[in-house]
Amino acid sequence: MSHINLKDVSVEIPVYNSQGRSLKKTIMGIATGGKIGLTESGKTVVKSLTNINLNIKDNERVGLLGHNGAGKSTLLRVLGGVYTPSSGVAEIHGRVGSLIDISLGIDSEATGLENIFLRGALLGIPKRKIEQELENIIEFSELGDFINMPVRTYSTGMHMRLAFAVSTMITPDILLMDEWLSVGDQGFQNKAEKKISELVNRSNILVIATHSRELVERCCDRAIWLEHGNILLDGPAKDVCEKYFN
């Protein structure tokens, strides 16, 4: 069974090359309500999350709400294992898949075909599975003969279609998303919407950060309102949306 349990999790991100500006750091600390401050050793840090306690169980669909800088992306990165908590404990049970940065690992000098295997390896997809699904990936991406061309020759839309086709091969227990993906023209977008919906349905847990009320109320049964790295409200999606957006 999939399970997420965060106990008093805090994340402090160090700011390097910031010494020798004590007055500026003091002013910044006051102006940001303590979000930017000093550790006991004198290092400048940004406090992205503060004492987060969170429990997410199987079959939950959770929407993260909050303004830019509220801590949504940082929380997703903790759940994905990208960030290690500065303090507290993060217990993640289940295979995690992320659609936060679908272009990560794409090499512009390599061909589309080569990048399918590169990106697949980065996602932890076995080479044998990629080989089995290769024709389907190429067909879905609609790249045709361009699949054998370097990615640097691709348009932005072609690049995104390739990255999307590979990234949605994952079959995670826990799916992390930063907004609902919008990829390609309207024709491809319809295919992409269906693909994402299938991926969400296959996952045991969904955690998605978004600014969309419609998305949270449509896809999530629970919502969490983050404010300055703290959980301000956690409850049924409709109730939290009502308070957050109003």
Number of strands: 10
User: How would a crystallographer describe the biggest sheet?
Assistant: 6 strands, mixed
Radius of gyration: 20 Å
Can you tell me the overall shape? Answer: globular
Poorly predicted sequence stretches spanning 5 or more consecutive residues: none
- Report the average pLDDT across residues: 89
Level-2 CATH architecture of the largest domain:
3-Layer(aba) Sandwich
Indicate the percent of residues in helices: 25-40%
State the strand order across the main sheet: 6-7-8-4-9-10
Structure description:
The structure is a single chain. The protein is 36% helix and 27% strand. It is of the alpha/beta class and 246 residues long. It has two domains: 3-94 and 208-245, Rossmann fold; 112-203, no CATH class. The longest helix is centred in the last third of the chain and has 17 residues, at 186-202. It is globular and about 50 Å long.
Brief synopsis:
With 246 residues, the chain is α/β, with parallel strands linked by helices. The chain has helices spanning 22-31, 72-79, 112-122, 127-141, 156-167, 186-202, 213-219, 237-245, and strands spanning 3-14, 36-38, 44-57, 61-65, 87-93, 96-98, 174-178, 205-209, 222-227, 230-236. It folds into two domains: 3-94 and 208-245, Rossmann fold (3-Layer(aba) Sandwich); 112-203, no CATH class.
Write out key terms for the chains shown.
globular, 246 residues, Rossmann fold, six-stranded mixed sheet, 36% helix, alpha/beta, 10 strands, 27% strand
